[in-house]
Amino acid sequence: MSGGAFLAGRTALVTGSTSGIGRGIAQALARAGANVMLHGLGDADVVAADCAGLAAETGRRVEWDAADLTKAGEVERLIAVTAERIGPVDILVNNAGIQYVSPVEDFPTEKWNAIRSLMLDASFHAIRLTVAGMKQRGWGRIINLASVHGLVASPYKSAYVAAKHAQVGLTKSVALELAETGITCNAICPGYVRTPLVEGQIADQARVHGLPRERVIREVILAAQPTKRFVEVEEVAALALFLCGDAARSITGAAIPIDGGWTSR
Fold this sequence. Notes:
The protein is α/β, with parallel strands linked by helices. The protein has helices at 20-31, 44-58, 72-85, 109-137, 158-177, 196-209, 213-221, 233-243; strands spanning 11-14, 35-39, 62-65, 91-94, 140-145, 183-190, 255-258. A 7-stranded parallel β-sheet has the order 3-2-1-4-5-6-7, with helices on both faces.
């Protein structure tokens, strides 16, 4: 499936896709034939070059927008810009996210609001703004990147865990509403994925704990991940791609872990 153009003629919007998991998913969708709207922060020249490279490789239209998804009006603008530039959204991947770690009694209200707005509210707004068009066309795929923390909790991450659990609930509710429309809605729940952000965390933890890199990975970062190896971006992208195919048309409302056994504990 991953080698063909089975998504030819489809338009995908992947939020938070200028790096990491989102970028990997956007690349996979374009290689499968979809026109893709990238979204997120980044140096404009670097992102433009990335878009041009992916477009040249795949022959698909690849655009980019840096909408501030913590604002409902910006989500609406992003959906409209995507439709204007490359077509109405057939595949929506809500991936954008941020993290903040603090004891709950010290958790800054502004951080709580920012995390909720970006990961939960923006997902809701993007879904509500794209579903009508998907219904008209009789086909759609909604994928929420909900994290292993949409299924289990960790201390000091109250806002992130709450938002991700809520995102899983949103996934289930939307799936039930759309069950007879040809649209599926699922959540992917990765454990620790090897991304530039996580690489930075490894270096930080090594300094804090005074441990070598490999011990930090095994004993700190991957302590809860039984396989003791990172999930690779390509693995998450392959799962997202599968969920867009006909073989996954009966998978909806699922929260699918890809976590090296973390949630089996």
